[in-house]
Design goal:
The chain is mainly β. The protein contains 1 helix and 15 strands, in the order βαββββββββββββββ.
Length: 171
């Protein structure tokens, strides 16, 4: 399967590929926040121009391809794109996007304060809120438990938090 690459610039061949545009395009701003490319820059390649909402903090962006679904996190949003049809589900996040964590049957999305689990069709499984104040990192998933590092008192006071992989409830 092809991989997704994310960047802030495009190589010349990708400039010829018609983009799928995600997010609100601000008036007078024709440069996207980032580009996501899947495959090769030819008619079968997919180029996505991602615009972040002007009022949203963009800590980082990430993209992961799992099966036929592409997940993109940027600003305060997660986009789930079905590669074969280009259909898009957009989910608003409660805080700035942080990280994607790939699982075999879903993807975990860590924001600055919450953890989301999305199914491979892009639907929301659950959300665990108020886990951190300013940062959440997925350490690992083992025995149906998600182990996280959560920043509770910035800067630098991190604590371990565990949630159920099936329910999102704190353990």
């Amino acid at each position: 399967m092809d991989e997704a690459s994310i960047s802030h610039t495009l190589e010349v061949p990708w400039l010829q590929v018609e983009p799928l545009v995600l997010g609100p395009v601000p008036t007078g701003q024709d440069t996207p926040h980032c580009y996501v490319c899947v495959g090769d820059p030819n008619p079968s390649g997919l180029r996505i121009d991602v615009y972040a909402h002007r009022d949203h903090y963009c800590f980082r962006e990430d993209a992961v391809l799992i099966g036929g679904m592409l997940f993109i996190g940027v600003g305060h949003r997660l986009f789930a794109i079905q590669i074969s049809t280009h259909s898009v589900l957009a989910h608003d996040l409660d805080c700035y996007f942080g990280y994607l964590h790939r699982l075999s049957d879903s993807v975990l999305v860590a924001t600055g304060c919450s953890l989301y689990r999305f199914a491979l069709d892009g639907s929301l499984g659950w959300v665990a809120t108020n886990l951190a104040v300013d940062g959440l990192l997925v350490r690992h998933v083992r025995d149906d438990i998600v182990v996280l590092d959560a920043e509770q008192d910035p800067p630098g006071q991190w604590e371990h938090v565990c949630v159920s992989l099936h329910t999102g409830l704190v353990i």
